[in-house]
Amino acid sequence: MAGRQVKWTREDLILALSVYFQLPFGRLNRTTPEVKELAKLIGRNDNSAALRLVNFAACDPYIINSGRKGMISGIGVCKPIWDEFADDKDRLFNEAQRIKADKLHKSIEETLNITQHELEGKEKSGVIKQRVNQSVFRSMILYNYERRCAITGINIPDLLVASHIIPWVDSTPQQKLSPENGICLSALYDKAFDRGLITISPDDYTVRLSSALHEYETQEYFDRYFGSISGRKIKMPIEHQPDRDFLAYHRDKVFVGI
User: Fold this and answer.
1) What DSSP character marks residue 8?
2) Among 171, 194, 180, which Cα is nearest to 239's?
3) Which of the residues 13, 106, 184, 242 has the least number of beta carbons within 10 Å of its own beta carbon?
4) Do 115 and 65 share a domain, yes or no?
C-alpha cells in the first residue's frame, strides 16, 4: 500500500539510486515525474521516495564537494548500495531495469519497447543493455540541460538528442554513462557534431565550425544555420559541465579540418 512504513528492500534502493543518477540535485523532489513514478513502482508515497533520493545525495562526493548537503539521516541504509554501484552504473541501470520489469510483470523487452524485429540476428542481452544505457543517458542529459539544445535553445523533445562528446564506440564503460560526456543538441547540430563538422572548444565552450563547411558558405542557408552559431558559447548545464578533456578529444579526433 502506498505510503506504508515498511523496510526498504535492496531492490527498492537499486531503483532509487538509478533514478537519483538521472536527475539533477534540484529535481530530487516529490513533484518530479520520475520521483512519482518511482514511488508508485515501489508502493510508497512521493515524499518518501524523494527523501530517499536526498539520502543518496549525502553519499555523493560531487554534491558534497560542491558545498551542498543531502539528508544524512538515512545514509546508513543507502551507503552500501552507493558503494556497490556508484562506479558501476552500467550494472546498476541494467539491474534496475530488470527489477522494474519484474514489478510490472512484464518482460524487459516490453518495458523498453524492443520489438522482435529489432532482436533478429542479434544477441538479446546486448540489445537490451544498449537500449537501457541509451535511455538512461538521454534522460540524464536532457534533464541536465533543462530539455533545451545547448546551442540554439530549441526545446522540442522529439528534436533533441543526448550527444556523446567522445563517441559511444570510443568511450569506456564509465564514459558512456558519464553526464560530463554528454551535451543536449537538436538533431541538426547533433549530426554535425557527430560528423565533426562542428566542435565545442574546451577552452571557452564556444562553437567552432569545420573548414569542411567552407564550400557551403555561399548557400542561402549557411548564415542562418552555421554562420550564426560560430563563436557562440553553449548554454551550460545545471550540473556536470562538459569535461574539457572530452571536448579536447572531440576537437583532436573527431573534428574535421581546422
Assistant:
1) P
2) 180
3) 106
4) yes
Greatest pairwise CA separation for the chain in angstroms: 67
Looking at the domain assignment, is residue 141 inside a domain? no
Domain that holds residue 228: 147-254
Q: Is there a domain that residue 111 lies in?
A: yes
Which residues contact residue 85 at a Cβ distance below 8 angstroms, ignoring those fewer than 6 apart?
14, 17, 91, 92
pTM of the model: 0.89
One pLDDT digit (tens) per residue for the chain, 258 residues = 444 567 899 999 999 999 999 999 999 999 999 999 999 999 999 999 999 999 999 999 999 999 998 888 889 999 999 999 999 999 999 999 999 999 999 998 988 888 888 887 788 888 888 889 999 999 999 999 999 999 999 999 999 999 999 999 999 988 999 999 999 999 999 999 999 999 999 999 999 999 999 999 999 999 999 999 999 999 999 999 999 999 999 999 999 977
> Which of residues 99, 119, 139 is at a domain's end?
119
Q: How far apart are the first and last CA of the chain?
A: 61
CA distance 188 to 245: 24
